[in-house]
Each structure stands twice: as C-alpha cells, then as structure tokens.
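Table S7 (text form). Paired inputs.
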Amino acid sequence: MIRTSIKGIAGLGVVAVIALILLGEKTFHVEATIPAPPSAVWEVLMDTARYPEWNPVFVSVSGPYEQGGEILNEVRDPKGKILEMTATVAELVPERKLRQKGGVTGVITFDHQWLLEPVDGGTRVIQHEVDRGLYLWFWDSSWIEPAYRRTNEALQARVMSLGSR
C-alpha cells in the first residue's frame, strides 16, 4: 500500500515536471504615457494600412480589427527578419482594448493586448503579452520588451505628429 502511494506521488511529480516543461510561460509588459486622448491613440492603432510608415516592429497588419477577425501580423525581429503570425481578435473595446490571440497550443501561443487608460495629461498605453508553450524553452525572447518599448515610442511620435497638423 505504501509503495503504491510513493509510486503514485512520484508519477504525479514526473507529470508535473513534464507539464512545466511543455507549458512554459513568459509575460511581457511595457507602458508609456502619450500626451493625447485615448481617441487619438486608438485612431493610429486602428489605421493598420499606415503601420509601415511608423511602426518599427508590427510592420504590416492585414485583416479586420473586429471581434473574431483573423489578422496576419508581420513582425520585424532584431535581425530584420519578418515573422508572420496569424491571430484572432479575441476582444475589441474601442478606445480601451485590443486583444489578439494565436499560435499552436503546446508549441507556442500568444495573448497580446493593447490597453489604453485615460490618465491626467493623456493616455497610458500598455502592451501586455503572455506566451505559453514548449518553444519558449528554446526561443530567445529577450528582444520582445525592448521591441514593444520602441513600438510605444513610435506610436507616441506618430500620434503627436498627427496632432500637430
């Protein structure tokens, strides 16, 4: 009886270790405050046709930003390589939230959000992403947060340039 319990506990331990390896998780979070109202920031985010003019990371977005819409994101990595990622718009709240999800369960999935919060003097822009899957154990993701910071900086520059016209 005791041997069976020990084997059972050991088996659960092995399963837990395998689950941790297969279902790793990484969170990325960056924030910036843009001195403009959420409506101005949202307008730039929704104008995906103009992303190539200003966005250093999300260089192309094809498909409708609408609830349930299928999107093809082309993302530039630090070496200049363009990565294609298909996503589904999981949540869209005008002037507040754009949430996209995609990937292959168990291998790598992403849940990326643009969050806009009105604050004194403008809009807090948050990019928050949670990635999961086995691939995370092999992928150097150290470039993600710096890339999202550059995107937020470019977003601010774009919003401000349009406001000055």
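Next pair, protein 2 of 2.
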Amino acid sequence: MLPIKDLNRSFTTPHINRWILIINIIIFTLYWLSTQNILDNRFASNIEENFVTFPNEILDGQRLYTLFTSMFMHADWLHLLGNMLFLYIFGDNVEDAFGHISYLAFYIFCGLSAVFAHIASINTGLAGVADLRTGVVGASGAISGILGAYAVLYPKAKVLTIVFYFILPVPAIVFLGFWFIMQWIYGIFDISGGVAYWAHVGGFVSGVILALAFGLKRKRAREARSSL
C-alpha cells in the first residue's frame, strides 16, 4: 500500500515540517551531485566519513553528534523520496497537534529512539546479520514516530492509498497499523535488504507514547480554543 495524501486538514501552517523536508532534500541533492562529480566529490566523502552514525562508535561514546546529523542523510533517491512522501502526508497534522517547537523536539526524540532501538536489536540478535560497524542514515526512524503519533491522534482520518490497482480511502489506523505490523514481520524474519526495521519499530512506539502522554492533551486544548 502506498499513500497519496490524507484527507485531514491542518489548522496551522506546518513551518517545522516544511523546513525538515527542505533540509533533507537540499543535503541529499548536494551529496548526490558530489557523488556524480558535478560538485567536488570530497563533499560526499566528507559526509560519509563524518556525519553517518556508526553504532559501535555510539556505544563507545564517540561522535555522538552523528545521532542527529544522520537523520538528515539518505542512501539514494528512492530512500529520500519515500521518507519525504510519508513526512509530507503525516507530519503537518502531528505538528498541528503538538505545536511547532514541541514538534521539533518530538521529531528529534523519535529519531534518537529509533537509532537506540536499532542498536539494541543488533546487541540482542534481533537484527540478524546487521553489524555494529555498519553506518546508519535516514529520517525514517523519526518519521516512524510521526506515524505512531498520527495513529493515536487521528485514527479515523482517511488516507488515500494505492491498493493494487485502486485508489481507496483507508482509515489511518488501518493503514498505519498494517505498516507497523509489516515492520515487525520484516524485522523478525530478517527481511532487511539494508533497512533498519527495528529502528522503525522503535520510532513508531516512541511516537505512540509521546502522543498519548502529550499530543492528545495538546490537540484537545487546540480544538477547544478553535470552537470558542
């Protein structure tokens, strides 16, 4: 199933979500241009050497800043576009519920949770052949948190989804529940293909917890103000 858009209007302008989108796209575009020798190829080499998260380094307390920088890096165009599609569809409403600054903190926290879930999956053997020395990049952990929060905050919202050859309005809880179950299945059976599925699981669970703890209250307060 591939989402096209959600039928859920945001009441505020999603400034933070837009900036996250723009920064991710700019960074990868510059990186890709460097790999194609259109820009100085030392830029791509510098990115790969200095801003990718390596789990073994994190466990040793080294280069902890990469936990943040790796959230804005992607492996290829498909990786980037897939992540940005989900961020664009679901992020604005979650930002609407949390508020701009809180949404940024939420996003970063979910991204960090996702990386630590990935590291834990390697240490416990859940991640199969994954190695602590293999670099980790991508916004998908943080975006998984957005999906978890969206499932809590807007379970009945409709998501226009491509299902085989049809475009159907699927309830968010069904679409996101199916997505979450698939991450578990891929992780358990080690259908990785280089994807850190346990990071997705960790990010999603973090998003659910934060939405239950803070997001629902903020969303109800905003709805109460708008009804006055």
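Residues 128 and 150 are 30 Å apart (CA to CA).
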